[in-house]
Design goal:
4 domains, 7-stranded mixed β-sheet, Arc Repressor Mutant, subunit A, alpha/beta, 3-stranded antiparallel β-sheet, 451 residues, Rossmann fold
């Protein structure tokens, strides 16, 4: 039999789930790789995760054992550095407060008075709804720990909202049915909140009613930092009375992050569409980024950060040379992207090329000298020219083909051979090759005398 009651375990498991969801939304790189792609906001996933934590923690026989088990479970889900984050620190602090040995009300109030300061949340539940994600967002805007939450409403006509808020640690104050009764009670309690909690430093006044302005002024006159929280459409607006700054939080959940395979397919589709519309196979990454945001309500950066923490879009595209080709004059210039299949597709469309003329991947040999590298480049250019029926090939496509065959960037190969200068400079030095500039791009081909 479990040492802990079911209500306590429910509170802990729900808080763990909300913390994991918050981490996935704000710092997905803190999750173990296998858990980053799971949408924890889906009710079935959330319920399964909550049930798993509840079942395992329910087997513990003491509070110390529960705390140790919780740490072990979190280590299985999060990378070590995650334990330095505010989200995890707040979670562990919250769970520690639930220790039954510390549940005496007088002891709790004494601890509150001895602490440096606390934040309090006042919620007009008849006027504004706060889900757990929004509530957690609010905790990131204040400086003191949020230790007291009070909700006001006529709970007889609120369905199961009172049960939910109670499980989330709210003190519930009931008011009779009638217009503005919840407002009046919230103003009365809020105006004297500093007398009940001597160390309160910050208060969230959560209501969209303008009548709360007087409460906010009263709190400020008592030296309390006030955050006015109101809803505007699909956004929660938080106004800081001290700085007059407003922070917006979207209530609309983020779309599910696509798998890397889905992302590549989506991105290739956008490139093809732009190639068709512009009659150009080189498309600016900035344009593709805007189209991706419009079509999928996600930024490319969000997808990259989810699957490849610490990487940039350019890095990812370079590591998929069989799918994409990138081109950039220098680090400060615009990045262009195209599809490698653009050139390969010409094989299928051409009826002048026999099956025997389609290039076959040859056995690779070691590249031990600049002469070897020049020979490899010459062979690649010959194959590409045969397929595209063009003598000159963009050096980015050449680089992508080299990566595809040898598994490393050509710039890395140049460094390994201790060749000074850029890729373009090396091509200039090759006697069998001819290089030319077209606009801002470099193209290279095999000299006619070498064909």
């Amino acid at each position: 039999m479990s040492y802990h009651d079911s209500a306590l375990l429910e509170k802990i498991s729900v808080e763990i789930c909300q913390s994991i969801i918050a981490i996935q939304q704000q710092q997905p790189e803190l999750l173990m790789a296998k858990y980053r792609t799971i949408n924890w906001q889906i009710s079935t996933n959330k319920s399964a995760l909550s049930g798993k934590f509840r079942a395992i923690l329910g087997q513990t026989q003491s509070w110390d054992e529960l705390s140790q088990k919780l740490q072990s479970l979190l280590k299985a889900v999060l990378i070590p550095v995650a334990f330095n984050s505010k989200i995890v620190s707040d979670l562990l602090a919250y769970v520690d407060q639930l220790n039954p040995e510390n549940n005496d009300l007088i002891t709790t109030h004494l601890l509150q008075r001895q602490s440096a300061g606390i934040a309090i949340l006042l919620l007009d539940a008849e006027n504004l709804q706060l889900n757990t994600n929004t509530e957690r967002f609010l905790t990131t805007t204040c400086n003191c720990p949020l230790q007291v939450k009070i909700a006001f409403a006529n709970w007889s006509n609120r369905g199961k909202l009172d049960v939910e808020l109670h499980q989330r640690g709210y003190d519930l104050i009931h008011v009779p049915m009638g217009r503005d009764n919840a407002d009046g009670k919230m103003i009365a309690v809020g105006s004297s909140i500093h007398e009940r909690y001597l160390n309160v430093k910050e208060v969230f006044v959560c209501s969209s009613d303008k009548v709360m302005t007087n409460l906010c002024n009263t709190l400020q006159q008592n030296g309390i930092l006030v955050y006015q929280v109101s809803q505007h459409g699909e956004n929660i607006r938080v106004f800081n009375s001290a700085t007059s700054e407003t922070v917006n939080y979207s209530l609309k959940p983020l779309p599910e992050i696509p798998s890397i395979e889905q992302f590549i397919a989506q991105f290739k589709g956008l490139i093809k569409l732009q190639q068709k519309q512009t009659a150009s196979y080189w498309i600016k990454l900035s344009i593709l980024s805007k189209l991706f945001k419009t079509n999928y309500e996600l930024t490319i950066s969000q997808v990259i950060a989810h699957h490849f923490p610490g990487k940039q879009a350019k890095d990812v595209f370079i590591h998929y040379p069989s799918e994409f080709v990138v081109h950039q004059i220098d680090e400060k210039s615009e990045l262009y992207v195209t599809l490698f299949e653009y050139h390969q597709s010409k094989i299928e469309d051409s009826q002048d090329i026999s099956q025997s003329e389609i290039p076959i991947l040859k056995e690779l040999f070691m590249i031990d000298s600049p002469a070897d590298l020049e020979k490899v480049i010459k062979n690649i250019l010959t194959d590409l020219s045969r397929v595209d029926n063009q003598r000159f090939i963009d050096i980015s496509i050449l680089g992508s083909k080299f990566y595809q065959q040898y598994g490393k960037p050509i710039t890395e190969q140049i460094k390994q051979l201790k060749i000074s200068g850029s890729f373009a400079k090396f091509l200039h030095s090759c006697k069998s090759l001819q290089i030319q500039q077209v606009g801002k791009r470099w193209e290279v081909g095999v000299k006619k005398s070498e064909l």
